[in-house]
Design goal:
Shape: globular
CATH topology of the largest domain: Cathepsin D, subunit A, domain 1
Helix content: 10-25%
CATH class of the largest domain: Mainly Beta
Number of helices: 8
Strand content: 25-35%
Number of strands: 29
CATH superfamily of the largest domain: Acid Proteases
Keywords: Aspartyl protease, Glycoprotein, Hydrolase, Protease, Signal
Strand order of the largest sheet: 2-3-10-4-9-8
Number of domains: 2
Radius of gyration: 21 Å
Family: Belongs to the peptidase A1 family.
Organism: Panicum hallii var. hallii
Pfam families: TAXi_C, TAXi_N
CATH architecture of the largest domain: Beta Barrel
Bound molecules: 2-acetamido-2-deoxy-beta-D-glucopyranose
GO molecular function: aspartic-type endopeptidase activity
Structural class: alpha+beta
Length: about 450
């Protein structure tokens, strides 16, 4: 992604405003109606925000096989950290995060500074590493750290502000600012909350975000990006802060994408159309307890592979409360997880049924690929059946072989679905070539197959 593709109408608008006016506007937004504030200043509320996404691996010169190995490693790392954080007691972990693979470039501040974020429907906070990072306590990133002192439009968020309290863990700094800790499967980040103007490929907004001064993350999870843009249901996500009632994204394939970009649309511009038929379902209501209130739960009920409907106990996908504030199970759709992972009660029947159907075509998985079922690469389209995810209300999502089998070495391709823990996660590999619409206000999730490079 190059700066040439970035436009920043918001920045121009900003520079005409007196700094004090901007600060009070921002504070007004925060303390009053954070949820519906984006419209002020003609941000992106009418037309919405558009972001161009680049697959992080497209920035390195990785082969298809290397990309799959990276994705397997990342998915495993995430799963391992989920187990670690859930204490092995079978309760779901807090917000999980190991890697994000699609990144967006944006501008923040006045004069604008460049930043790059991984896009995450599985968390809320927007954050970027800042010059407050002491030596070596933050992750390496490709762009310079954000310098809040160099931005005329930056304002710290006071610790008494509602936006500060919206962080699960926060405290008052000595200067009255808001210090937060955000935890993910791959570690935590610590920083202070501020507001500034953001400009995306098109559209922009004044947003509260974390200026990170300390990261303790598994090395490599940022992939050189400077931070994260959370799209979850919580108050500090980009979606909530801009008052967007919906958002959509369409991910170009991991492979054979000729460098085509994917796009994310937040707000009015997000809609389906022009592609295949639209399938739609209600979201499963999220528990109110943070962090479970972040996730987008889908009503997955069953799986068919080839002509066989798998025998999976109906409870396998249920979201259930195990204790006060603890929920287990459920199925979330996550732009941040590379590969889908299924609860054991669903994964085992899938693996066993496919092993039976592919009998004769199966080859040994490459050493330490971490994958269970493999065939010769050239055989995939010939022998691997379509997999159908059945959601509530008769909504079916058909995954062609290319959406759940991936090349792992020169001669071998393997099933890119992993065994997870109690929660099942529909990862971004399984979302390729689909336009997904999250109608947050309407409580519905819709999708259609699409050529994402043309959107
Ligand atoms: C941040 O910006 C301020 C004001 O322009 C400048 O004095 C300072 O050196 C900058 N800090 C870094 C680390 O670049
Ligand atoms: C394949 O099918 C044959 C005959 O039904 C059976 O003996 C063999 O165990 C099967 N192999 C696998 C890998 O399932």
């Amino acid at each position: 992604m190059t700066t040439a593709t970035m436009r920043s109408p918001r920045t121009k608008l900003k520079s005409k405003m007196a700094p004090t006016a901007l600060v009070s506007l921002v504070l007004f937004c925060l303390s009053n109606v954070l949820i519906t504030c984006s419209g002020s200043g003609g941000t992106g509320a009418e037309t919405g925000i558009r972001m161009k996404l680049t697959h992080v691996d497209a920035k390195g010169s990785y082969t298809a096989e290397e990309r799959v190995r990276r994705a397997v490693a990342a998915s495993r790392q995430r799963l391992a950290s989920m187990r670690a954080t859930s204490g092995g007691g079978g309760v779901s972990a807090p917000v999980h995060w190991a890697t994000r693979q699609y990144i967006a470039e944006y501008l923040v501040g006045d004069p604008p500074q460049r930043a790059e974020a991984l896009i995450d429907t599985g968390s809320d906070l927007i954050w970027t590493q800042s010059t407050a990072c002491l030596r070596k306590v933050c992750a390496r990133q490709d762009l310079p750290y954000f310098n809040a002192s160099a931005s005329g439009s930056f304002a710290p968020v006071p610790c008494r502000d509602r936006a500060c309290a919206a962080n699960y863990r926060h405290l008052c700094a000595l200067d009255g600012g808001c210090t937060f800790v955000a935890s993910y499967g791959a570690g935590s980040v610590i920083g202070f909350l501020g507001t500034d103007s953001f400009a995306f490929q098109s559209g922009g907004a004044a947003l509260a975000f974390g200026c990170v001064s300390f990261t303790r993350l598994t090395p490599g999870v940022l992939h050189g990006a400077s931070g994260l843009i959370g799209l979850g249901r919580g108050r500090l996500s980009l979606v909530s802060q801009t008052g967007a009632t919906r958002f959509s994204y369409c991910l170009t394939p991991y492979f054979h994408n000729d460098g085509a970009s994917s796009h994310l649309l937040v707000g009015a511009a997000a809609s389906l159309g022009g592609g295949g038929p639209v399938t739609s379902m209600p979201f499963v209501e999220s528990p109110k307890d943070f962090p479970f209130s972040t996730f987008y739960y889908l009503p997955l009920e069953g799986i068919t592979v080839g002509d066989t409907k798998l025998s999976i106990p109906s409870s396998a996908f249920d979201l259930r409360q195990v204790d006060k504030g603890y929920w287990a199970g459920g199925v979330i759709i996550d732009s941040g997880s590379p590969f889908t992972s299924l609860a054991k009660a669903a994964y085992e029947p899938l693996r066993d049924e496919l092993a039976g159907q592919l009998n004769g075509s199966l080859v040994a998985p490459p050493a330490d690929s971490g994958l269970a079922l493999c065939v010769t690469r050239g055989d995939v389209d010939r022998v691997v059946p379509t997999l159908v995810l059945h959601f509530g209300g008769g909504a079916d999502m058909a995954l062609p072989p290319g959406n759940y089998w991936a090349p792992v070495d020169k001669s071998t391709a393997c099933m890119a679905i992993l065994e997870g823990y109690e929660q099942s996660i529909i990862g971004n590999f399984q979302q390729q070539n689909m336009h997904l619409l999250f109608d947050v206000a309407g409580g519905r999730f819709s999708f259609q197959t699409a050529d994402c490079s043309t959107l």
